[in-house]
Amino acid sequence: MNIHRAGKKGQGASAPKDAKNLSSLPSDAIRSVLVKRAGRTDPAFGVPPMQRSLKMHMRLGAINLDKTSGPTSHEVTAWVKRILNVEKAGHSGTLDPKVTGILPVLLGDATRVMDTLLLAGKEYICLMHIHHPLPRKHILEVCGEFVGTIYQKPPLKSSVVKQLRTRTIYYLDVLEVEEQHVLMRVGCEAGTYIRKLCFDIGLALGVGANMEELRRTKAGPFREDETLVTLHQLKDAYEEWKETGDEAALRRVILPVEAALRHLPHLTIADNAVDAICHGAPLAAPGLLSLETEINKGDDVALFTLKGEAVAVARAQMASQEMLSSNAGIVATTERVIMEPGTYPKAWKLAERQAFAPAEKAAKR
Questions:
Q1: pLDDT means over runs of 10, the chain (365 residues)
Q2: Residue-level pLDDT at 232
Q3: Which end of the chain is less congested by CB atoms within 10 angstroms, N or C?
Q4: CA distance 78 to 84
Q5: In terms of domains, do 87 and 213 share one?
């Protein structure tokens, strides 16, 4: 078989099942767009993400990397830096050396959004070995008890504080049972230890269990889809660009930073609000053009221009409906600025430019 409720509180016992009915990751939430007011964007400022220069594309790049078994996550990130000849890169969500699958790597200024990925949900395909044969029905029943909020203490080999904490298992689907091997798909909160989860399931089964193989198949907005690339493909694309000047392959393997923000609710802002946000100012209601549903106060949100450029990550100060109806007040406070200040003009300069635009058009006629 290939992968590609414990007894005591201190041993991974199930916590109250307040998340029992969850069946998908928070990043899979489907939201609708609410239009607050119409807006227009000046083509003289900014640029749609897919039209950035290659230099800017790489400075604001994200890679959906398929990690192989063997190297550490830090080694893989160091290889990416050498392959692309970039000064700064970072990965989100460390994978153990033997674990394969999705390892998001952010380049340059895109590393500013790292925290939003670290806290995003993850999905794994896990091969668990139980230490004694058991009926399939019993295995399914016990595994089902671990869906929801569980207690978990990090394993001894982990680098974090060995303190009992709660983590949410959004879903745990048993895909196959073959003798003493159980193949399962697990969607979980960031910081969940799958090795420890297998150990705790073994305790609940009464026969013991251990994790044999593990592959990460989702990390926030990143999936096993056409954007997933290997280090070899990354190297080949870079060499093709160096030798021929053709950017196409390199642009395919390096995504714009906006791809790393798809899991966050989006707020679209007016051009005259962008520069203030780039200097760390909060977003006021008059600067908001559209938003997505299901936003609660305190949620992380991503601020975008009308051209689709990521401006900043912010903290919502209102829920969706309040944002939609408010004409004044602070909608969101800026947490991480992504766009360089000066990309868009200051509000008064933009207003001045827009005021003179009709006169300039009339003169040209």
A1: 47 44 80 95 96 97 98 97 97 94 98 91 97 96 96 77 89 96 96 95 97 97 97 98 97 98 97 96 97 96 98 98 96 97 80 51 53
A2: 97
A3: C
A4: 10
A5: yes
Contact by Cβ (8 Å): 58, 325: no
d(CA 97, CA 83): 20
DSSP secondary structure letters along 230-256? -HHHHHHHHHHHHHH---HHHHHHSEE
Same domain membership, residue 280 and residue 153: no
- The answer to whether residues 332 and 315 touch, using CB atoms and an 8 Å cutoff, is yes
Residues with Cβ within 8 Å of residue 102, at least 6 apart in sequence: 64, 65, 66, 67, 216, 217, 218, 219, 222, 223, 224, 228
Q: What are phi and psi of 29, to 5 degrees?
A: -60, 135
Annotated catalytic residues are 96
Is 302 in contact with 221 (CB distance < 8 Å)? Answer: no
Whether 273 and 188 map to the same domain: the answer is no
46 & 80 share domain: no
Domain with 130 in it: 9-29+52-223
What are the DSSP calls for 126-183, one per residue? EEEEESS---HHHHHHHHHTTSEEEEE---TTSSS----EEEEEEEEEEEEEETTEEE
Give the residue from 11, 50, 356 showing the smallest Cα distance to 200.
11
Task: Give me the number of domains the chain comprises.
Answer: 2
Q: What is the dihedral of CA 93, 96, 102, 103, to 10 degrees?
A: 50
Residue 252 CA to residue 61 CA, distance in Å, equals 11
Closest by alpha carbon to 197, among 127, 288, 97? 127
CA gap 214, 198 in Å, rounded: 11
Query: Treating both helix axes as pointing N-terminal to C-terminal, what angle do 347-364 and 271-278 enclose, rounded to 10 degrees?
Result: 150
Q: How far is residue 142 from each of residues 6, 86, 134, 139, 361, measured CA to CA in Å?
A: 9, 48, 11, 5, 72
